Input
Amino acid sequence: MPIYNYLCKDCGEKFELLLGMTTDKPKIICKKCGSKNIKKEFSAFSTPKNSDSGSSGSCPTGSCPLG
Output
């Protein structure tokens, strides 16, 4: 299940929600102020590195110029 980041546009509270994949859109309410004025924010993610060879799964040679 993906974790989504949200921001309450009324009070500024930032929070995360773990949401399942459903056909119904969940009603998201700020737990701090009760507002429904919520914005989904960009959520960064990371991938684990392979500690055996020092390379990540997306770079099999271990010498990627961007890594």
Notes: The chain has a mean pLDDT of 78. The chain has no helices and three strands. The two ends are 27 Å apart (CA to CA).
